[in-house]
Design brief:
The structure is a single chain. The protein has 393 residues and is α/β, with parallel strands linked by helices. 38% of the residues lie in helices and 17% in strands. It has 14 helices and 17 strands. Helix 12 links the parallel strand 16 and strand 17. Helix 1 crosses helix 2, helix 4 packs across helix 5 and helix 7 packs parallel to helix 9. The longest helix is centred in the first third of the chain and has 15 residues. The mean pLDDT is 96. The structure holds adenosine-5'-diphosphate and magnesium ion. Magnesium ion (MG) binds next to helix 12.
Length: 393
């Protein structure tokens, strides 16, 4: 792994891709966690005498400079968190002669932030011109934005292919958590997959079936499996065009002789609405007019038992529509089981991570990935372009 341990930083202009894609409302940052998580790398580079130039995207401005996506509020927040001045190099094209001059004036131990990289249409297309222009600003490159590593953009792949490059401390932490799982997991190895759609998780299902000792399928996704088994699922979310796939997957699972857990009971209601009347029913008794929005307590019990015997647990995707009460209980039950387990526990996926944070159980997990899509692709067994490019540089 090419980490900051190998980088010669003193006196160099270091371009650092961070993930400052924070949630904002009316120009105010509503959750600064991503900025906080980037501090370790930034502080280390400043302490080592680097001239630090930060790059990030924010939201989806689609290649245009749009004020509501400006990183200016982030620069202010970062200054507050670092306790040092942060120069915001405002430029609608992100890089220009003016920006080059500003960067040229930076001194050792000073830090600047460029404008939202996605203001430039070259970013998401990884265009040569934009990549070259960005690269001309610095001597070395550090990628610390795990959440975009599954994409090949100018600010990651474009820069890593032009400058000597290193992985930042945050990405290093992500890879150190995932590597043992991908290469040689402690067994029994249990995967819990949930969330909205089978179609989002085909890759991960297919890949994990060959790796794990046990597989749990929950969330809306489980109803496609239940229907494929011939059960009535009412108007639960079912992907009709994935029924055959679900059957194939279940055959494959049976061949592998791994433990397989589907819901045995579910929480049903008329519609997905806060505080609506709901009841727990066995999966054989789902009313035609109702829909399942969560797993039931018996299912939680079975999952908890399996978790208690596991040495490695990977969890991706909530067990129910947890944003809407009372359909948060299944997700909470799984989170509690993981919190109590001695297994090495890794959470991937944006919504599952959010659920654990809401429950205040972050500290009980071994690793909560900062990258939803990127962690999914790792668990699918794919290489991430943003990381491969650094390793090759
Ligand atoms: P992650 O981001 O962790 O990978 P997904 O994006 O795949 O998870 O799925 C999360 C979404 O799935 C949540 O918005 C949740 O409300 C929804 N969901 C889970 N179970 C159900 C269900 N039974 N019915 C409707 N929506 C569900
Ligand atoms: Mg999601």
């Amino acid at each position: 792994m090419k980490t900051l341990d190998q980088a010669q930083v003193k006196g160099k202009t270091v371009l650092v891709r961070v993930d400052f894609n924070v949630p904002m409302k009316d120009g105010v940052i509503t959750d600064d966690r991503r900025i906080v998580q980037s501090l370790e790398t930034i502080e280390e580079l400043l302490d080592k005498g680097g001239k630090v130039v930060l790059l990030s995207h924010l939201g989806r401005p689609k290649g245009e400079a749009r004020e509501e996506f400006s990183l200016k509020p982030v620069a202010e927040k970062l200054a507050e968190l670092l306790g040092r001045e942060v120069q915001f190099l405002k430029d609608d094209k992100v890089v220009s002669d003016q920006v080059k001059t500003w960067v040229g004036e930076l001194k050792e131990g000073e830090v600047a932030l460029l404008e939202n990289t996605r203001f430039n249409p070259g970013e998401e297309k990884n265009e040569d011109d934009f990549g070259k222009n960005l690269a001309s600003l610095g001597d070395i490159y550090v990628n610390d934005a795990f959440g975009t590593c599954h994409r090949a953009h100018a600010s990651n792949v474009g820069l890593a292919s032009r400058l000597p490059s290193y992985l930042g401390r945050l990405i290093e932490k992500e890879l150190k958590a995932f590597q043992p799982i991908l290469e040689d997991p402690q067994r029994p190895y249990l995967a819990i997959l949930g969330g909205a759609k089978v179609s989002d998780k085909i890759g991960i299902l297919n890949h994990l079936i060959d790796q794990v000792d046990g597989l749990v399928v929950v969330g809306a996704m489980a109803f496609t499996f239940l229907k494929a088994m011939g059960l009535e699922t009412g108007h639960s979310l079912v992907e009709e065009d994935k029924l055959d796939l679900a059957r194939d997957l279940m055959e494959k699972i049976a061949d592998r002789e791994i433990e397989f857990i589907l819901p045995v009971d579910v929480v049903v209601a008329k519609e997905l609405k806060e505080g609506i009347a709901s009841k727990v029913v066995p999966i054989e008794e789902i009313d035609k007019d109702l829909a399942g929005f969560d797993i039931g307590p018996e299912t939680v019990k079975r999952i908890a038992l399996s978790v208690s015997k596991a040495a490695t647990v990977v969890w991706n995707g909530p067990a129910g529509a947890f944003e809407t009460k009372p359909f948060d209980k299944g997700t909470e039950g799984i989170a509690q089981a993981l919190a109590e387990s001695k297994a090495f526990t890794v959470i991937g996926g944006g919504d599952s991570a959010a659920a654990i944070q809401e429950l205040g159980l972050e500290d009980k997990m071994d690793h909560i990935s900062t990258g939803g899509g990127a962690s999914l692709e790792l668990l699918e067994g794919k290489d991430l372009p943003g990381i491969v490019a650094v390793e090759r540089s």
